[in-house]
From TrEMBL, chains A, B, C, D:
GO terms for cellular component: tRNA (m1A) methyltransferase complex. InterPro entries: SAM-dependent_MTases_sf, TRM61_C, tRNA_MeTrfase_Gcd14. The keyword Methyltransferase applies. It comes from the Archaea. SUPFAM superfamilies: S-adenosyl-L-methionine-dependent methyltransferases. This is Protein methyltransferase. It holds the Pfam family GCD14. The keyword S-adenosyl-L-methionine applies. GO terms for biological process: tRNA methylation. Residues 57-234 form the tRNA (adenine(58)-N(1))-methyltransferase catalytic subunit TRM61 C-terminal domain. One of its GO terms (molecular function) is tRNA (adenine(58)-N1)-methyltransferase activity. S-adenosyl-L-methionine binds at residues 105-108, 126, 154, 170.
Length: 256, 256, 256, 256
């Protein structure tokens, strides 16, 4: 399948140089390892190796992971391991409708839109308009704009939507939104909270218990990367040892 | 939305008693905490609390996690944390087509079918027919049968499909299938391998390097659960400390 | 060096059957794998394999680890990994004098006495006399009685000793003892606290900051065991994932 | 106890500026935060805060940890958590005699000498003379020279000592020395091996099994540091995720 204008592609030079772009005639991608003209990508295929002004690069079909690697990041971003588990354990599936706050750099927003498919819907709240500009740009690059509704509002003032399949909170005081999430959710729908400190875990968890959420879990995922070499395989020495905690539960409609 | 015959529902008594069923008139679910008649579920809603012969249970909309909790397990099963990350990092999305081996108890099979949506397709290979019976039953319960093709074949003898979006291997010697996965994959498609020992990590990784896979990673996810209590929050004391390693890479079509 | 009455020996049948004893004529060790008469140990050597009434056992020179494995445990016991790090990072050496509370089963008490040598001194406080009986018995078995002073007192009411090299606290509210530990310590001496919850970490750490401790660290050690088999080496599947947190700092005598 | 010439002291400016020195009249310690004259330390006490040319520093009694922080490091150094556990689980105590290879920067050497006390003995082998110069300097600074014998020899050619309490190996192919360690050890004495890769774990462990070592363990310690702040306590984000594996066992004198 030959690439054409408007297609999205990941330019992979090496593990540390990954660039995501939408092919636009006349544009040029500049990197510290040389440049490439968008025009030269037309007619190529995913998987191809292409020449750059110096050296070469692979063309790949964009994965969510690439978005992460290339993301313009005005704020701290969620990690793929956490986003993967948050989505998986939320019970959502293609076609569902979800609410999220805050938008941040849009990495969770975009991941949700990606997995919810063409008929899915993500409504994302953030009080900072500049944040949402970045997220909007990333959504545009990935042709996911139609599935996302951006709201420049404070979710603490209320959730406009009702009967949603899941609510995702990645914000400073998520416990202040638990009652509102409860109201917005379909019965049995999941509330998924991400926080960096243990004190926030405690507050969020206890508030969810108060509001008839059941099957509540507070969990943390640690990712360990390995350096593989024949006869000398071992975990990498330095890495990320903490990102945050995930608290999740499901709405029940009658008290236990 | 009132439940009716043929609907699927999770019966949640407590965190250790989770049962998944398809409502069938005349049937009865027996547990060590009492029984419930399927007929009594008709007309109820997800989120409701219902009476059992003793005590009560919540009705929930089935999540993949519930499948895991209730799964009939003739073999060791993948964990949700691993399945979540394998799916996420494979780059697949609703409508894609994937190949998997072995079927095992079908937990990955079903998770893939769930996320790929109505237009998605999972082809799953296993040499053991009895394994697939369990997986078929689980797929039936969840109304996912249409999206899955079961093949009682040894994937080492070849992959019938071509142009697939991703290949998932959870089997003893995955390195023997790397070249076949390469051929079956679309350019830029992902191969995702799950193995329990470090020796298998080394062999799989090196074979993937040999076959022009790029952006190869060998990773391990550790999940830590927390016990939350006001003023006394801490990680749980005993738990699973090892499930397995995930090796993943993407097919390039020209040598670097 | 032939074993004689009064010597201590570890009877090692397998990793799960480890018994520590002081050779006493006429006594018998009974296990679910047969018995052995103390008299039969006399004249044997460490490292020897001896017959039991059924099967056989190795005689080993007792290690602190064996004490742990065989310890009579009326309370939850510290783990070797934590005790090792607590002792190491406390800066103590043979001949030093330390204070500890609570005694508990005496595992830390005994470990301290072991490393402090013949001229070292451990003063251990506990409000429960019955606890100390167990610890005393263990100290007797190991010939360490002379190095330990047991006090059946509440350390919250004050520390009788002064100019001690280190203070170790493994008790519910260690922050209530921080000021007293500060007074009892030599300048530059270490306070080492062990607690199971994150809330206790926060309180202990902040109280130590208030009392002019410097180089304060809050740390946690995770131990992972591996199952080694040729070509199939991997971490063990199930294990202890949390024991507790270690907070440590050193007394400075002037405010920063 | 007033400090005098020849005493050792840790100059603690902050957690990242820790300097260990032996007070020598006329000398000066230069740092990027100002300098201090050794003469100005005389008459001060451990715990004191002293003026530097700019700012100030605490004087502390040197701990092994400080040695680590200030160590001149020509090679990769063992970490305190690993050294602590290696020493603890080796069963050694004040007065014992141990063999070690290779010397490296001498951090384990010095730690052993510290815990073995005045009557203890460490014999350390290394093929690189320059390595040992660094270790000798560090031993001199800490007044531990008398307890350590440096041998500029390849331990693979044999261990001169016999009847030693423990052998410690931190070198590329420890399995080649297992049989020699077995001979040098007292019955029941421990062999403790440190290696960075899983392949080395497998080889070392299997060789120890072959040579009648019992109670063999292959373990890994992970240290997690916490950032404590009132109401916002969490693990640190970035850190060391892998140092190495510890394999340990005890010599039995008859085959099982």
């Amino acid at each position: 399948m030959a690439l054409k204008e408007g297609d999205i592609v990941t330019i992979w030079i090496d593990s540390k140089r990954v660039f995501l772009l939408k092919i636009t005639k006349g544009k040029k991608l500049e990197t510290d390892k040389g440049y490439i003209l968008h025009d030269d990508l037309i007619g190529k295929e995913y998987g191809d190796l292409v020449k750059m002004s110096r050296g070469s690069a692979y063309l790949l079909k964009p994965f969510l992971e690439d978005i992460y690697l290339d993301l313009k990041r005005p704020s701290q971003v969620l990690y793929p391991k956490d986003v993967a588990y948050m989505i998986y354990s939320s019970g959502i599936k293609p076609g569902d409708k979800v609410v999220e706050a805050g938008t941040g750099s849009g990495f969770l927003t975009i991941s949700l839109a990606y997995f919810l498919g063409k008929e899915g819907k993500v409504v994302t709240y953030d009080i900072r308009k500049d944040m949402q500009e970045t997220a909007k740009y990333n959504a545009y690059i990935l042709n996911l704009t139609d599935r996302i509704e951006f709201k420049n509002k404070d979710i603490k003032n209320g959730i406009d939507e009702s009967d949603v399949d899941a609510v995702f909170l990645d914000m400073p005081c998520p416990w202040e939104v638990v009652s509102k999430a409860y109201e917005a959710l379909k019965p049995s729908g999941a509330l998924i909270v991400f926080v960096p400190t243990v004190n926030q875990v405690e507050k969020s968890y206890l508030e969810m218990e108060k509001y008839n959420f059941i099957e509540i879990h507070a969990e943390e995922l640690l990712l360990r990367e390995y350096k593989v070499k024949e006869g000398a395989t071992r975990p990498k020495n330095i890495g990320v040892v903490h990102t945050g905690f995930i608290i999740r539960g499901r709405k029940s409609i009658k008290p236990l």
